[in-house]
Structures
1.
Amino acid sequence: MKKIIIIITIFTLIFFSISKVDAKTKKVSITIGAGVRGVSADYFSDIFSGTNLCYSIDIAYKIMKSGELFLHSDYLALEGETTYTKEKTTFTLTPIEFGFRFLLGKKKFVPYIGLGGGSYSYEDVHPGLLTVSESKVGFFGEGGLKFYVSKSIFIDMKLKYIMLKSEKDIDLGGLAYMAGIGFRF
């Protein structure tokens, strides 16, 4: 929880410092959303059953006519049971991603594609067995659609593929489906 508060504070400070510079041109947007994040490692579906719900925040700054630089973070927390001993186990993942989006439209519907990389901090806790806590660099590609309800409010839907391997070569990447509401300033 402490990491989330720090990340939200950093995003808020960045947002307010950028929005003051370009308040008249509406180049800054903030999107808050939720989605489902998949993890490719085989054992995840055995240990962590159910939906992998994650929460996200995204701050973007429009550059040129068709580009956006963005800073993004998610929070994924899973609880499950070990396969053999049935002990409670937890997994949390918090990335801080930076990337570029190419906007493919300028009207009410704005499709986009993007790529980038980030630092992915995760903690995998199996009480009595082991605890793994580390940060790794990973990369992602995304595609999505922004639907503008008004000049300043939009709905954002995206599909993202993350490439991320742990120290022990476990595939923590996978598909993420996200949706959110955004505000342009």
2.
Amino acid sequence: MNEHPLQGEFPLLARMAAPDVVPPEILRTARTYRQAVRLCWQLRRAKRLTYRQLAAEVGVPFQHVGDYFNADDKPKRRNLPGDAIQAVEAVLGNTAVSQWHAWRAQLTVLEEMQAQRRAA
């Protein structure tokens, strides 16, 4: 096989499967929204993916991406916008943030039902 010396490989030139579901025991380690966002990044399929590449794929400012995943949780840090969650999960290859929201919502509904029963 004679390859041209300037021809490069395209390692991601393939159909990507839908984002993976995160196992509940791993998801439960995220207590806050920011922890769920960081978990999504930690579990990404493409380990060599950079913040710059993610920003370009999702359409968010590159300057903000570092804040989304930073571990210090200072009040000045930006949170991942809700309208970017689906795109970020698609690029990173898992649904940690959506699952975290669903998990939190179910707990809230359950707690509300229990409170109503106690009040009745």
